[in-house]
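quick one: adenosine-3'-5'-diphosphate bound model?
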Amino acid sequence: MYNIEVPDDELYKKLDTPFNKDFVKISLKNDPTKFCVMPQSFVDLDLERIKNMEIFEDDVWVVTYPKCGTTWTQEMVWMIGHNLDYKTSLEVLLDDRYPFLELQGIVPSYPKNMFDECVNMPRPRYIKSHLPAFLLPDQLWTVKPKIVYTARNPKDTAVSYFHHYHNMNGYQGTIGDFIKTFVNDVMMYAPMNNHVIDFWNIRSQPNILFLFYEDMKRNLKQEVRKVMKFLDKDYSQDEIDKLCSHLSFDSIKSNKMINKENDIKHLMSIAGREYNPEKFTFIRKGKVGGYKQELTRESIEMLDKYIKKAEFDIEYHF
Ligand code: A3P
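yep, here:
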């Protein structure tokens, strides 16, 4: 079903970090335009078992390309789906309430078997993944549980990904080099364009809710209402106001159940670095258009070309 190619390209090597290396290009044998870059450990551990995973119609998935506001979306969806259960939300890590399906495949040293965590969750299961559509479980497309997909403009996404890679994975290259790997589709989970297109094309199916990070920034209440409708929930104006405060940038940033401090410490220790919240926090800037302060004109032009190359009718906000 798949071709697993070990790419002979220097750009891939630039992405090697203390815990992600040996990147391969996984493609569909019958359609090589469907491909994704992942570490070999993902192929060894997760590729087949995820493809064959049993899906239930009451699952609620959040799927995104990395750094598009996954964590924010997960908390919003989880709260709305759980009758605004602040007590549990403030006591249980989001990563335990909404586990990350392929985390062990990309970080083999991760202390938990995340696939088993997802499989064995009490129903309804809430599951996060960054995998592109063609690597997700086959039964997702026949059983059709609810899937929330959040997209973000690729320029802010790439910058956010750089900070993640630099601070959490120990990437030593420059931001300019990172953008080059991004637009050449050799980054982990690349290509971003295809990732978004595949969900954009099915966005009108009743079990898919397609959101934009920028819309969440501009009018969170409106996006909360979309999720409520999608999950068949009804809350009062006061409840929606309270939820939006809970989901605000400052609130999420200081919420230890959500802000991933422990994960960051774990990853940084593998990379031989010390965690310093003054320098980096997972909930970092939370801005639309922040790339303008961080990228050179050359990098912005590369990303503009990359976005144009996708040739689909999505309108990103920058
Ligand atoms: P920045 O790095 O641009 O700040 P993910 O969860 O997919 O890894 O996405 C992380 C990005 O979402 C980070 O972007 C983070 O700051 C942003 N984010 C998380 N919660 C947010 C919120 N409540 N408001 C705005 N941005 C948020």
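The radius of gyration is 19 Å.
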